Every structure is written in C-alpha cells, then in structure tokens.
Amino acid sequence: MKIFVAKENTKFESRVAVTPDIAQKFVESGHEIFIETNAGQKAQFDDSDYVSAFATICKRDFLSQADVVLSVNSLESEDIKTLKPKTFVISIQEPHQNEAKIHALKNAGVTSFGLDLVPRTTKAQYMDVLSSQSNLAGYKAVIEAAHLFNRGFPLMMTTAGTIKAARVLVVGAGVAGLSAIATAKRLGAIVSAFDVRKAAKEQIESLGGKFIEIEQIDDSGDFGNQTYATQMTKEYQNAQENQLRAILPNQNIVITTAQIPFQKAPIIIKTDMLDSMNRGSIVIDLASKTGGNCEQTKHGQTIDRNGVQIVAFENILNLISHDASKLFAKNVFAFFELLCLKIQNQTSMLDIDDDIIQNMLITCENKISKEVVKKCMNLC
Ligand code: NAD
Description:
Layout: E1 2-5, H1 20-28, E2 32-36, H2 47-52, E3 56-58, E4 68-70, H3 77-80, E5 88-91, H4 99-108, E6 111-114, H5 129-148, E7 156-158, E8 161-163, E9 167-171, H6 175-186, E10 190-194, H7 200-206, E11 210-211, H8 234-247, E12 253-256, H9 271-274, E13 282-285, E14 302-305, E15 308-311, H10 321-343, H11 355-360, E16 361-364, E17 367-368, H12 370-375
Parallel strand pairs: 1-2, 1-4, 2-3, 4-5, 5-6, 9-10, 9-12, 10-11, 12-13, 13-15
Antiparallel strand pairs: 6-16, 7-8, 14-15, 16-17
Bound molecules: nicotinamide-adenine-dinucleotide.
C-alpha cells in the first residue's frame, strides 16, 4: 500500500505521526511510505533521516494518491475532499468536537479510524496513544512547574539553613496524573493526589503519594470496575470543594488532569480557592483543552493572578515532541499491523469481528459507525 504521512499544522503541533525508525518498519512490511516535506522537522526528524529509512519525500498533493493517510491530528475538510474513496485515514479525530470533519470523511467514502477511540484494554495498550501521550504530558507538566517555581523541590539541609520540600497536589490520577506523581516524587516533593475513582487510591500510594479521601463519598464516587469517571453529584462536588479549600493554601504546585471522556472537564478549583494559594504557587492545568479544571484557566495562556501562575499549554506535548512522536508512531504501527491482519479476506470493514477495530472505526462506506454515533450523540 502507498502510505502518506501528512505534515501537521505546525502552529499548534510539533509532533509527527511516523518517525524514521517506524517508516522503515512500514517498508520492511512491504509498503511504500511517503512523507510530506518537513513533516518531522519540529520533532527533530529531518527529511534526510526518512530518506535513509527508505521513505520518499513528497508534497501534500500526494494525498489524492495515497491508500493510507497517517497524521497526528485530523485532516482539514479541504484535504479530506481530495482523498480517493476507501482510503484508510488514521489519526486522532476527536469526533465529539469535529462534527463537520466527520461528515466530510463520510461524504468522501473513506474508511477512517480515531486513535483516540482506542479501547482501554490490555490487548489494545500497544496502540493506545491516549496512554503514551498522557504519560509524557504528566511528566512534562511537573518539569515545567519545577522550571517556573522559584524554589527548590527536595528538602535541602545546608549549613546556611534548611529549604523545605515543595508540596505538589495532583488532581485526577489517571495516566497523566500518575506520571506526574511519580515525577514529582522523584524530584523530592511531598505529593498528594485524589481521584473520583477509588481504585486510584492504591495506585497513588504505590507511587509514594498521599491519597486524599473525599469525606462523605458514598457509592456516587465509586465506579467499581468502570474505567472512566462520569460527572459527579452536587453532593460530591461540595465535599470535594470543602476538602480542597482546606488543603490548597499549603500547596506550592497543583497539576490538574481530571477529564470525563466526550464531556467538558469538571471545574474543580474555583477562583476563591485559587486566591487562597500563596504567591509563587503554580497551577498547571492539563485539562485545558476541554475547558480546564480551574475556573481561571485560559487554554494556551499563562495567567498571573496575584502571584499565582495558572498555566494551560496549547499542547504540552510540543515541548517533548521528539519522544512523543516516537511513542505515537509505535502506537500507529501497532494499530496498522492489526488492521492489515484483519482486512485479509474481508470485503467490508463493517464485517470485521474485532473489538479494537470496531471501537476505533469512524466512517466506512459513506456511513458513520454506530459506535461513534453512540458516543457522540450529535452525529447521525
Ligand atoms: P482521563 O484522562 O479521562 O481522566 C484523568 C483522571 O481524572 C481519571 O483518573 C478520572 O477518574 C479523573 N477524574 C475525573 N473527574 C474527576 C473529578 N471530578 N475529581 C477528581 N478526579 C477526576 O483518564 P485516563 O488517564 O485516560 O485514564 C482513565 C482510566 O483508564 C484509568 O482508570 C486508567 O487506569 C485506565 N486506563 C486503562 C488502560 C488499559 O487498561 N490499557 C490504559 C490507559 C488507561
């Protein structure tokens, strides 16, 4: 197959969907790989690196000849119109936010997959871009906070006096949150964290963090075996707020990561809570793209509020785009291998009996998949 790797809109994205080592793997598995000029430049992969890996460098108009198009973010509707019917289009698609593009994919008759729709199962973890990228985001959030923080992280006892360890609070202990906890601990901070999922307690504690129990949490906060959080009850939100109000004045750094799939992120840190924090404190809001966990968050901006900085990166992965691209590319290749295996002897993608593929399928044969319609009710 002819596989095309599109260059991202570099204003917002520094990653590339395929790195040279993975380009070579595509070639070794019998495909031809075409990379858009300078696609990897911002992640420090030069066109010459791809050529050494047996890829061909070409212009964007190759889209119309490709059998498979790979990118980090979804293609623009204008690009989608140029694709051949039945082209495989694989990228993060965010269907709940990209209704027009999903309709463009449907109308173009292409077979599209959302890497962000990967099921969170053991079998799918090799292709899970949500996990690989969140892991790096959590790590980088702490490193950036340490950089902005005008004090040290570890307890330091010197002849000139003692420097106290920084106190870090992590809100939401999913993949990014746990990575942030581990990083802050390694830097010597005193770390506490909470999550609505009770299963997070053991994970937080195993990394050396203190789990903050939200008092009065009853069955509303216990999701049992459910993987994802849902919107919390008013009662729970009040209890959470009271607890946070008590501990926030003592925190130096807050990393917020709380998200609810396909919904706006919950507001957890209200303005008056922020105002109780000491000057010099840092809040890094990793949930800013979906609205943020902090009332004052502005996506893509750093706000200074009475000496407390509220930081919401446009895309924190741009600050670690080399490694983020490497992991992303491995995930993409794993998904593509599965796809190749399953499409053998199948006439229609809709007949493929595989939960990973059916979960990630967005459009096929001029239809939007039932799974996607179920998750994003605004699409039909
Ligand atoms: P996410 O990015 O959707 O959300 C981050 C965290 O915020 C979650 O842990 C969530 O419970 C928490 N949260 C939501 N609302 C909150 C609130 N009001 N207050 C506090 N915390 C709140 O989560 P994620 O990183 O994608 O992980 C979600 C789940 O999926 C976790 O249970 C994780 O262990 C699991 N997971 C499983 C696999 C696998 O099995 N292969 C892979 C990745 C993640």
